[in-house]
Amino acid sequence: MKTIKNSFVILILISGLLIVGCSKDNTTEKTAPQLPPESSFVMDFEGFENPNDTITSRSIATYQNWGYSYINVLVWSVYLKVGLAVPVASFAESFKHDAVYHPDQDNWTWSYNFVVDGITHEAELTGFFQSDTINWEMRITKNNFYTDFLWYYGKSAYDRSGGFWVLKENPENPNNILQIDWAYDGNNIGDIQYTNIKPGAPGNGSFIHYGTVAGDLDRFYNINNSELNNLISIEWNHTEVHGRVKDAIHFFDSEWHCWDNTLQDVVCP
């Protein structure tokens, strides 16, 4: 009888160890969700950021088409670098750090510091699975100013084929201000769009849409001004820099207006 009791105790101990071991294995087997690509947040303005290409350094008479395209893209580029400096920097920094799993909440958190204008901020990016999507939330802290401010949130497909972000203006004005929609396919051909969603803003609904496509003119911007109900279409070759622009209000027609690889106006082929 004593032998049976001892065997029973040993069996319980072994079972307990197995349960603990399995529990530990399940935790370690969990894998952090893959971050959306940085290009899901930051639009590519390459080719439209060189100050030497502005029309102030060229003859206005012969560089109108490129110059007009440049100015319209530059407005959004400056907004990204200045108005969205903190959220952009917070997301860019996330790729340099590893996530920590929290079993009690079943989510992953990237925690780290980043610097904007010489000031250190604290970031906490959280990701958790929901069906075939991943939910994201970014909270930012600036000492003596604000704590755990939910600056932006979003969702992405499990396979990183697309998703969206919603950004708030700032801790003093926590209204939604910008939505970023993005998509990519297996050939790295995709697009990203910034849309002004600030409630009551004159430019609510305005957007800039950037994408890559196959063909000679392999890059494009579509820029919509909701106040003027006007769409500007820009297409160009990102290596040879020739391209074209269309704007019915500015050019008084619905035709394409082209520039060559020196950025000079030419007749469209």
Features:
269 residues, 14 strands, 14-stranded antiparallel beta sheet, alpha+beta, single chain, elongated
Secondary-structure blueprint:
Elements: H1 2-29, H2 64-83, H3 85-94, E1 100-102, E2 107-116, E3 119-130, E4 133-142, E5 146-157, E6 162-168, E7 176-184, E8 190-196, E9 207-212, E10 219-225, E11 230-236, E12 243-246, H4 248-251, E13 257-259, E14 265-266
Could you please describe the fold and organization of this structure?
- This protein is an alpha+beta fold and 269 residues long.
- It has one domain (39-266).
- The chain has helices at residues 2-29, 64-83, 85-94, 248-251, and strands spanning 100-102, 107-116, 119-130, 133-142, 146-157, 162-168, 176-184, 190-196, 207-212, 219-225, 230-236, 243-246, 257-259, 265-266.
- The protein has a 14-stranded antiparallel sheet with strand order 1-2-3-4-5-6-7-8-9-10-11-12-13-14.
- The longest helix is centred in the N-terminal third of the chain and has 28 residues, at 2-29.
- The protein starts with a helix and ends with a strand.
Number of helices, counting only DSSP H or I runs of 4 residues or more: 4
The structural class is: alpha+beta
Query: How many domains in all?
Result: 1
Largest sheet: 14 strands, antiparallel
Proportion of residues in helical segments: 10-25%
Low-confidence stretches: 1-28
The rounded Rg comes to 26 Å
In spatial order, strands of the major sheet run 1-2-3-4-5-6-7-8-9-10-11-12-13-14
Task: Please report which band the strand proportion falls in: under 5%, 5-15%, 15-25%, 25-35%, 35-45% or over 45%.
Answer: 35-45%
- Topology, number of strands: 14
Order of helices and strands: HHHEEEEEEEEEEEEHEE
Q: Separation of termini?
A: 99 Å
- Write down the overall geometry: elongated
What's the overall average pLDDT, rounded? 87
